[in-house]
TrEMBL record:
Domain HVO-0163 N-terminal HTH: 36-106
SUPFAM superfamilies recorded: Winged helix' DNA-binding domain
Entry protein name: Predicted transcriptional regulator, containsd two HTH domains
Gene3D superfamilies from the UniProt entry: Winged helix-like DNA-binding domain superfamily/Winged helix DNA-binding domain
Source species of the chain: Halorubrum aquaticum
Length: 200
């Protein structure tokens, strides 16, 4: 059983290491330790899953806690990866690629209820709190709490219902990183062209 787990870990690391090798970060690419498969896997994972928190990264790459901490610290010190605290989470991003609002947006898009709200409001900007609760299968207080967090992050205006303050930015992030969210985001991204109108 342990051999099977180890082989799955090696396959996962190799897959993300291939991504990391194909599109290396600016920084220590070519350094002597770049052959480290775990570090290459993180180099591939972080740009394809920006805003992932530590536990998700560790679990997706099948790493031990200390192993993940060591390699992330090394990459941060080398200026290849940056992180930011988000409530109880530390989220990781490729260095220099996102502004603060993008980082906040990606953090909320990585949470199920806020992401569901964003997708629903991008599809139907007039959706009410009750309609959002029904669509997401959660309670009204859950929607209200998530709306408060999105508003505090400058992503939602609650002055008159619920209105996304940065719909184009959120749409772009959802479409670009849909595969790293969930099946609902992928389905949304597949239909996103119908939501965009060109009016020169």
């Amino acid at each position: 059983m342990t051999e099977e787990v180890d082989e799955r870990k090696r396959r996962t690391l190799r897959r993300f290491a291939a991504v990391g090798a194909a599109a290396p970060f600016v920084g220590t690419a070519g350094a002597a330790d770049d052959t480290n498969e775990t570090r290459e896997a993180i180099r591939g994972y972080v740009p394809s899953t920006p805003g992932a928190h530590f536990s998700k990264l560790r679990d997706d790459l099948r790493l031990g806690t200390g192993e993940a901490q060591h390699h992330l610290r090394t990459l941060e010190e080398a200026g290849e990866v940056e992180s930011r605290k988000d409530a109880d989470y530390r989220r990781y991003f490729p260095a220099g690629r996102f502004d603060e609002l993008d980082k906040r947006a990606l953090g909320y898009l990585r949470r199920e209820t806020p992401r569901g709200m964003v997708l629903a409001l991008l599809s139907d900007p007039d959706a009410t709190g009750a309609e959002l609760a029904d669509a997401l299968g959660v309670s009204r207080p859950t929607i209200s709490a998530a709306a408060g967090e999105l508003a505090a992050a400058d992503l939602l205006d609650r002055t008159d219902g619920y209105e996304l303050t940065e719909p184009e930015r959120l749409l772009t992030l959802v479409v670009r990183y849909a595969d790293s969210f969930d099946a609902d985001a992928v389905a949304f991204a597949d239909e996103a062209a119908s939501l965009v109108s060109y009016d020169p």
